[in-house]
Each structure stands twice: as structure tokens, then as C-alpha cells.
TrEMBL record:
Pfam families listed in its UniProt record: FCD (PF07729), GntR (PF00392)
Protein's name in the database: GntR family transcriptional regulator
PANTHER family the record matches: TRANSCRIPTIONAL REGULATOR, GNTR FAMILY, TRANSCRIPTIONAL REGULATORY PROTEIN
Keywords for the protein's UniProt record, in alphabetical order: DNA-binding, Transcription, Transcription regulation
Entries under InterPro entries matching the protein: GntR_C (IPR011711), TF_FadR/GntR_C (IPR008920), Tscrpt_reg_HTH_GntR (IPR000524), WH-like_DNA-bd_sf (IPR036388), WH_DNA-bd_sf (IPR036390)
Cited CDD domains: WHTH_GntR (cd07377)
């Protein structure tokens, strides 16, 4: 397991990780889980990283009690692993887990897309189109974090438009484990370009209520992400 940073660059007592803002105390209970989740998704905390509670508390400006509660939530989501003897560390999926999880997610997203084309409302479609244009604006600015946030909201809204609560619950639980890898899959410009093009096709299929086309685009979109991730060094054990 790697430490949160190398020994040569470990902060001294009272120092925080550079570039990571402290949390506002009045928003602590609403944001600490989401904040830590984002640090994992955006690879500030990479797979296999051993989490130092003291360092995280200093970095985020919080006490150990809310931190430990947040870690329990993230452990339940499969994003971290907590061991009585070794503490907490960021989960690292095996190659088989990555392959099979993306494979399953491709099927879930395809089903959601087909159902969404039957059930989506004009208001929901307009929201997705607005998010799509905002997402492309982020891409033009090289803002991967902003792009990914809007990208995930689009996928979530397509899933919501499917109007199937069991599908949504399964999708959200599974997707939490893949978010860091989905973010990582856009590191190469050509992969990012391809993903953005896929989203153009998604919007067109939704507008025309072409469920079979949207299902096919979503399925291949996820399988392409799987392949991009599998071809990146250091992805899995």
C-alpha cells in the first residue's frame, strides 16, 4: 500500500495537502462524504492509497469523528476498505472485477436508455441538452473535472427518465465503484473526443426517441471506456 504521499514530500505537523481546500464547517455534514468521494474519483487519492486520518483531518479541517463516519459510508459503497489492523485504504479493483463490472454496467445503461426513450418528458430532455452543451463547453476549456461532473449528471438523468427504481438503485450502487475509472478513461485526448462524440449521438437518439439506437450507443460507450481503462498502466492488480 502506498502512503497518501511519498516520504520525501510528507507535510509537517499542522500542514495540509496543497491544492485541497478545507471544508466549511457549516456544510460539513452535507459535504464530507461527497468531498472525499470526489478526491477518490479524481485520483487525488489513488487506488491502493493508505488513508492517514491525522493528515486528512488537517487537510480538510475536520475532526476524526465526521471523518470516520464518512469513511464508513465510503466503505459501504465499495470505494474504500477498512481493516481493523491496517486502517482504511482506497479500494483497488482487479482486472477481472473491472472487466465484469463495466460489462454489467453497459447492459444497465443500455436498458436505461431504451426505457428513457419511451418515458422521458420534454422538460427532462431539455435539461439533458443543456447539460450536454455545458459539458462540451468544459471540454473546450480543458476542464476535465467540470466535464465529468456534467457527464455523470447526464447519465444519471437518462437513468432517472427510465422510471425504474430497481434499475436506478442497482445502477447507482454499481456506478460508484466505476466513477474513478470512468474519469480516468478521458485522460487521453482521443478518448475524450470519442466520449464527447458518443454524447452527441445520445442526445440525437433521445430527441428522436430511438431506444434501440440509444441502447446501442450507451452499451458501446461503456465497453469503450472499459477497453481504455484496461489499456492504461497501473489500472488494476
Amino acid at each position: 500500500m502506498q502512503n497518501i504521499r511519498s516520504e520525501a514530500s510528507q507535510p509537517g505537523a499542522g500542514e495540509a495537502l496543497p491544492g485541497v481546500p478545507k471544508l466549511e464547517r457549516q456544510r460539513l455534514h452535507d459535504t464530507v462524504v461527497e468531498h472525499l468521494r470526489n478526491l477518490i474519483v479524481e485520483a487525488v487519492l489513488q487506488p491502493g492509497t493508505k488513508l492517514n486520518e491525522r493528515e486528512l483531518c488537517e487537510t480538510l479541517g475536520i475532526s476524526r469523528t465526521p471523518l470516520r463516519e464518512a469513511l464508513k459510508v465510503l466503505a459501504a459503497e465499495g470505494l474504500i476498505e477498512i481493516s481493523p489492523n491496517r486502517g482504511a485504504s482506497v479500494s483497488k479493483m482487479s482486472e477481472t472485477e473491472i472487466w465484469e463490472t463495466f460489462e454489467l454496467m453497459s447492459g444497465l445503461e443500455a436498458m436505461a436508455g431504451e426505457l428513457a426513450c419511451e418515458r422521458i418528458t420534454p422538460v427532462e430532455l431539455a435539461e439533458i441538452k443543456a447539460l450536454h452543451y455545458a459539458m462540451l463547453a468544459c471540454k473546450a476549456q480543458g476542464d476535465l473535472s467540470g466535464y465529468y461532473s456534467r457527464n455523470q449528471t447526464i447519465h444519471n438523468k437518462i437513468n432517472e427518465a427510465a422510471r425504474n427504481s430497481v434499475l436506478t438503485q442497482t445502477y447507482l450502487g454499481l456506478n460508484r465503484r466505476l466513477q474513478a475509472l470512468r474519469f480516468k478513461s478521458n485522460y487521453k485526448p482521443e478518448k475524450w473526443d470519442s466520449a464527447a462524440h458518443d454524447h452527441d449521438e445520445m442526445v440525437k437518439a433521445l430527441e428522436s426517441r430511438d431506444g434501440k439506437k440509444l441502447a446501442a450507443v450507451l452499451r458501446q460507450h461503456l465497453l469503450d471506456k472499459r477497453d481504455a481503462v484496461m489499456n492504461m498502466p497501473g489500472t488494476a492488480d
